[in-house]
Amino acid sequence: xxTCVPAPAGSVPPLEHQRRGRERGRVLVLNAxxxxxxxxxxxxxxxxxxxDKAEVIEHADWDLRSAxxxxxxxxxxxxxxxxRIPRDTHRRKITRRAVFARDQWTCQYCGxxxxxxxxxxxxxxKGGVSTWENIVASCAPCNxxxxxxxxxxxxxxxxxxxxTPSPTVFIHVASPTIPSAWQQYLAA
Length: 188
Hints:
Layout: H1 14-24, E1 26-30, E2 36-41, H2 42-50, E3 54-65, E4 70-79, H3 89-92, H4 96-102, E5 116-120, E6 135-139, H5 140-146, H6 168-174, H7 183-186
Parallel strand pairs: 1-4
Antiparallel strand pairs: 1-2, 3-4, 5-6
Helix pairs in contact: 4-6
């Protein structure tokens, strides 16, 4: 028999914790040069702030409180010292979500935004490889229509050639809903 333990007086109800976690649980991390490099949890951001490894650039309207202190809830933080990020990091991470984000969640043949799959422009059976330059988002009907052929053989054309994505694509993958406070840092 399970018993329900009431929440302590003054605490936030569990549903509010879930809502805040989904909506507001992510923080954009900028390098010392203001280049976006990562998305982290609020908890990790606060640890970086308390260790003086980062500073708050943008904060929410509400505070995080402990027994002895209050801190503005960070939305965007900047690392105090520059962190070198290997440039080939983004070339390795070919995932469905990353391909969809790069292609703005749109079929690259017809422009549809529903029932997306991943398609090899040059099919593997014809020597195509799994690289950023050969994989696109495609709706299921276009993928079936193209089948094991080249797009031009069935009268299909790509809306734009596939390319290696910018590093900000991985920010969109980590946080599908981008807060408005992040927009100016991801615009580059």
